[in-house]
């Protein structure tokens, strides 16, 4: 099997390692089958799409809608690298699944409006499939409504005509979309479980996702409802595109 690639941007080692472990476990892949590239540590290597089965993108601290002058140099580099990659991925309709930061990368590339209008605090939200989502093979076996972990400062306010809406939540109209047949982005985190989100809550306590003094409330919000279905998306992606 040709390997998959995980493009990651987390600078903090513990959540970065847990993110990789979660993708491995829930996608059903070995380390040889899922090659991780930590983009915050260095430039994106040239990816030969013909030698790969597909691309995953993990979440991270970057906000695409931040003013350019507020973006650190590493973020500007990573965004430029994603633009170049998606210039190849989208026309080829190459298998691509971006989790959380995928909305920022694919959304910006396709001309979506991304801002803070539909930001969601860290916690569990009910995600509902659209008619197109219910018919999409990547969401095969998913219930019409399921709980998912979220926590983001920006989201898509308006999708471009090139994108198909697949899932929404009450506080965020665009939770998942598709471009072409094989390029996907989710606002929620399909790779997260309770242990993983607990680690991230502690790791990013000073990053503005919740107010000082709300650590215990945020931890409780992440445990208020069971989350078991979203990881199926990762396994579906691998089963559909492994070659």
Automatic annotation (TrEMBL):
Annotated Gene3D superfamilies: 3.40.50.880
Source organism superkingdom: Bacteria
UniProt domain Glutamine amidotransferase: residue ranges: 49-192
PROSITE patterns with a match to the protein in the record: GATASE_TYPE_1 (PS51273)
Gene Ontology MF terms: transferase activity
InterPro entries: ChyE-like (IPR044992), Class_I_gatase-like (IPR029062), GATASE (IPR017926)
GO cellular component annotations of the record: cytosol
Keyword Oxidoreductase among UniProt keywords: no
Keyword Transferase in record: yes
Keywords of this entry: Glutamine amidotransferase, Transferase
Protein name, per record: Glutamine amidotransferase
Species, as recorded: Microbacterium ulmi
């Amino acid at each position: 099997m040709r390997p998959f690639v995980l493009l990651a941007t987390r600078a903090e080692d513990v959540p970065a390692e847990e993110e990789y472990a979660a993708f491995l476990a829930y996608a059903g892949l070995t380390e040889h089958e899922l090659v991780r590239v930590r983009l915050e540590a260095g430039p994106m290597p040239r990816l030969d799409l013909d030698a790969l089965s597909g691309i995953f993108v993990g979440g991270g601290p970057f906000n695409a809608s931040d003013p350019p002058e507020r973006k650190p140099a590493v973020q500007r580099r990573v965004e430029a690298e994603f633009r170049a990659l998606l210039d190849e991925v989208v026309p080829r309709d190459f298998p691509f699944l971006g989790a959380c930061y995928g909305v920022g990368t694919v959304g910006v590339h396709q001309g979506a409006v991304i801002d803070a209008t539909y930001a969601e605090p860290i916690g569990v939200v009910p995600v509902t499939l659209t008619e197109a989502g219910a018919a999409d093979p990547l969401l095969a076996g998913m219930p019409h409504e399921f709980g998912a972990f979220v926590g983001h400062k920006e989201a898509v306010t308006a999708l471009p005509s090139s994108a198909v809406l697949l899932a929404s939540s009450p506080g965020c109209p665009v939770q998942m979309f598709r471009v072409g047949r094989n390029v996907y982005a989710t606002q929620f985190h399909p790779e997260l479980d309770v242990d993983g989100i607990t680690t991230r809550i502690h790791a990013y306590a000073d990053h503005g996702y919740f107010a000082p003094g709300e650590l215990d409330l945020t931890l409780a919000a992440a445990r208020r409802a069971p989350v078991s279905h979203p990881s199926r998306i990762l396994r579906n992606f691998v089963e559909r595109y492994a070659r």
